[in-house]
Structure formats: structure tokens, C-alpha cells
Design a protein that fits this description.
The protein is mostly beta strands. The chain has three helices and 14 strands. It is globular. Keywords: Signal.
Length: 323
Amino acid sequence: MRIPLLLCLAVIPLSLHADDGDSDLTPWMVERITPVHDSVSRWVSNTSRNIDDFFGSDDSYSVENRSFLRLSSEFDWQESEDFETDLSIRARLDLPTTRDRLRLLIESDPEERQGTLADQGSQRLRRDQNDSSSTTIGLDHLDSKDKREGWATRFGGGVRFRLPLDPYVRLTSERLWDLGNGPWQLGSYNRLSWFNSDGYSARSRWDIGRPLSESLHLRYITQFQWQEEYDTLEFSQGAELNQILGRRSAMRYAAAMVGNSSSSPRINDYYLLTHYRRDLHREILYLDVIPELHFPRDANFDPRWAFTLRLEMLFRGDIRKRE
């Protein structure tokens, strides 16, 4: 399933409307989208709650369930390179009443398969760098601890469907601190993974930020990554200013540098970007427009433009009670 480029281009003018109402789509587009969205959302909700009811309790039909299915189609262009398009699929089925709280994950873009930090860049194109036709399915055991009170950890494992099958295990930990009595917050995200085909990998993300006003938020993000396949420590440092433009649109302004090696640090890329995100229709359909300017080492730090256009559809089941 690929959303044609012409459709992507057609919705850009719609995103420029003022935030009057909850949709930028025309009535005939709404009539075609709504039945499909409602049908798939019911399937997501019913599937997760039925599985949870089997392993857990009757409360599975009344408690909050954060299951979702996300489909996104992306168009990507980089100066001096070919145009690319990609379909990304990610699903999460929560099982909140199961004795050991579990989450079923289905994804075509696990972070372990997105290459080096230099490959990922600003994460314009969320695709599996090695084999976009494969899908990863796994089960996570969730920690009930609040990450504001201690380290929240989850352990998971599963398989990547390819030939031969590629099993994996991963351990993830998260923590959030309020710094003093001020508005600053520090967040930490860390993951250790093993894929049979690629070996071990480790990544760490530290995010410190604060609101500047009701519509502006400042963040500084530091990332580290090591992969056995490449056997080098990578790092990136970035700054972001996030701005709420209206009830259904926001903008991100960011600058970052990416490098590698701990003994002799080497910068491989600098880049600037703006990321415009628009809720096109009732928190169901989203549009992302991301122009970027890169200064890569392999081009002698000469400027290189890049552009991404993304359409994303989100299917979520509402909280409901058994009748």
C-alpha cells in the first residue's frame, strides 16, 4: 500500500487553513476515510481487549487500553540522490489486565534496524535500512513503576520475519527527573538489544528541556549509539525549539551535529531543519513537511538540501465497556 505522491501534494494546500473546525478535508474525502478508519480501529480495540480478556480478567473491557495501528507513507528527496518513497507500519496491542502486564508489538521500523546515527540523520525516512519488506513481532513485559519515581524498565523479545528467521531480545529503561523547583526536566531513554543477524547494540538518549511560554518549548538532546556491526561509538548533539501554532498545528526548529569515535571525535554532519506537523482530520490523519539543510563531511561540508513529505494515519480504539 503506497499513497501516491499526487495525493501528498494535493493535501498541502489544505494544511494551510486556519484552525477553524476539526478537519481540513473535503466532505467526499471524509466519506471515504471514515468507514475504513472506524472499521480498522474497532479491529484494533477488539483484538487487544479479547486477547487481554483471555489472559487477564473481565476488567479488560473497561480499563484504558492504549493499543494503536499507525500507517505512514513518506516521500523523501535529497540533493544529488534519487527520490525515495516508503511505507511504515507500527502496531501496539496493550494487555493491561494480564497478570504480568504485557504489550504486543508489530513494527516494520524497529530502531535497531535504522542504521547508524549518520544514516538516521533527522529520521526523515523511518524505514528498515537493510530490508524494508520484513516485519518484527515481539512481546514486551512492562514495569508498573512510574518513571518519575524510579527507573521504569521493560524486557522484550520476538522475531524478525525474514529468511532465515531473526530472533531478538531487548532491555529498555526510562527515567524522568524534575530539576529542583524550576521548570527544567531531564529525561533518559536507554536500550540494549541483540539481533541474531546483527549482534549487540546499545543506545542512550538524554533530553533536557523547559517551557518558555504557553506555546514554546526548548529542548537539548544528546544521543549515543554503539552497534556491533559497525563497532564504533556514535554521538549527536541537538537543540530544538517547539512551537504550537494553533489547535491542530505545530512547528519544530532544530540544529544538530552527528559524529563518531570516543578517542578522536570526528564530526560527520551538521544540519538545520524545520518540521511542520498538521492534524488534517480529527487526530486521525496527519501531515508532516520537513525541509532540511545538511553540511556532510563526505561532501566537504558543502550545503545539501533534503525534503520529506509524510502522511500518517492513526487507528486507535476508544475506551469502552462490555455490553
